[in-house]
Amino acid sequence: MNRREFVLQASSVAAFGASLHAQPATAVKALTFDTFGTVVDYRSSIIDEGRALARKKNLSVDWEKFADAWRADYAPSMNRVRIGELPWTTLDRLNRIILDRLLVQFNITGLTETEIEGFNRVWHRLKPWPDAVRGLTRLKKKFTIAPLSNGNVSLLTEVAKHAGLPWDLIIGADLSHHYKPDREVYLTAANLLELPPASIMMVAAHQDDLRAARGIGFKTAFVRRPDEGPNGEHRPIEPGWDFVVNDFNELASKLSA
Q1: Which of 55, 121, 157, 172 has the maximum number of C-beta atoms within 10 A of its C-beta?
Q2: pTM higher than 0.85
Q3: What's the burial of 165, exposed, middle or buried (CB within 10 Å: 0-12/13-18/19+)?
Q4: Domain count of the fold of the chain
Q5: Three-state secondary structure readout of 99-128
Q6: pLDDT tens track for 43-64
Q7: Which of these three, 89, 105, 124, is where a domain ends?
């Protein structure tokens, strides 16, 4: 190959790389999904199971406040792992640590160890959002789809079985021993999928998750979930996401799936 041919070939490669960034929808090969709040409705699931437990055990608890308190300690608990205050700990175990504290805070007594552990596993029995299964099934026909979640693999597997989520594979935090938004989580997904970050789209209802994914080169799709959390997700939508959609079916349509 002479110098002119080398320069022409290098220019073609550079142009191809630029086209991948210029056409995010066509470049994407896999979609990774935040799970809690984006794919499944953790809040109403906890409230419903709490009320069922209260009827069984004659408890008087504000289960909406309880669900919100459980979720509120989610990020601080993961940060204890991140800063080394706790060794690597799965989300199942962190949830149990939080639950033990909440039982005291909300003056919930009279539960057996079996009942406490069973209630902790409410996180394995979360309900999908109404659009989730159909939307994921459509997207699966065109893309590899996987949760990219702070949940551990066993937890996410049971969530998928309970909710009927049609994942191709499951990527839990215990594979990287990191919690989002640590960059190692997203890099682990890219390594497992054997794809460059630009060929993966992160789908989430939480913008901090999308910021971190975009920081290593993922494409991004923000899904509005107004019923996620105690007051819904009403923060201003940041500019720069590749897609902003109301549900997974709209995302499937925009991606021609």
Answers
A1: 172
A2: yes
A3: buried
A4: 2
A5: HHHHHHHCCCCCCCHHHHHHHHHHHHCCEE
A6: 999 999 999 999 999 999 999 9
A7: 124
